[in-house]
């Protein structure tokens, strides 16, 4: 009888788990797109500045 109880306790119950629902990504706001654009321009400007400094040496 103990063996039967142990056997039942070891049966996985993952078959009863709820299916995973992927979260739907939200669209970016206009403000976020503006900040991303400004950050992109700043990065490009920094890369150009570094390239000019390195080229002089």
From TrEMBL:
Q: Which UniProt keywords apply?
A: Membrane, Transmembrane, Transmembrane helix
Q: Which domain of life is it from?
A: Bacteria
Q: Does the keyword Transmembrane apply?
A: yes
Q: Which spans are transmembrane here? A: 35-55
On whether Transmembrane helix is a keyword of this UniProt record, the answer is yes
Name of the protein: Protein NnrT
